[in-house]
Amino acid sequence: MVVAEDDPLAQLAIQSYVARVDDIEIVGSAPDGKPALELVKSLKPDVLLTDIHMPHMTGVELIRHVFALPDPPRVLCFTVLGDENTMRTALEAGASGFLLKVDPPDMLIHGIRCAYHGDALVSPKLLASVLRQFQRHNQPPSDLSDMDLELVRLVGRGLDNGDISAAVFLAPSTVKTYISRLLKKTDCRSRAQLAAKAHEWGLVEI
Q: For the domain that residue 103 is a member of, what is the CATH number?
């Protein structure tokens, strides 16, 4: 494994964690992305452990350079400051995992092993935040009334206007008008898109 880490104390901590296990070996360390890239080219490690915030070449830049190589290693990010956008950028660049320095040492070891085997591991602290964000994004708009939500739900179940009118005790023409307004309110171009929204918002039981 090659380590890219600009903090000497963090480098020592990583070395001490790895020294406790028999299946991981650090073959090279660098304080910045540029020398780390050269180490990856020359040593051809199975795994690259990289910080994100480094002075001359960031971890994300390093990952992009690494994945331009013919046979890139697996990459695990290990950083003190992590947010959803940085994590997403790193994962999109090719990283196999994203851990925080506040995570337990055992998790770092597990993350290195996961990366080696081609699996992914994300810090639970970041994952919880991402899930909360995902849940917020998948809530229906607050300006939809209870009737609006019921109509979206019925469209999501595949009912036509006649069936919906019987279910909500409205005339078919009224239902048609309601749904036309709903398409505009929800930025949907078709009933199919509205039905997809019903599933996205959890209005339809699968």
A: 3.40.50.2300
| Residue 171 included in any domain | yes
Query: Residue 129 carries which DSSP code?
Result: H
List C-alpha distances in Å: 25 to 2, 14, 15, 16, 202.
9, 11, 9, 11, 46
Question: What type of residue sits at position 110?
Answer: H
> pTM of whole model > 0.90?
no
How many CB atoms sit inside 10 A of residue 102's CB?
10
Give the residue among 178, 6, 115 at the shortest CA–CA distance from 14: 6
pLDDT digits (tens, 9 = 90+) for 173-198: 999 999 999 999 998 887 877 887 88
**pLDDT level of residue 157 (50, 70, 90 thresholds):** confident
Shared domain for 127 and 169, answered yes or no, is no
Number of domains in the chain: 2
The domain of 114 spans 2-136
Out of 108, 136, 164, a domain closes at 136
Helix and strand element counts for the chain (H, E): 10, 6
Centre a 10 Å sphere on the Cβ of residue 21 and count the other Cβ atoms it contains: 12
Q: Provide the pLDDT confidence category of residue 136 given band limits of 50, 70 and 90.
A: low
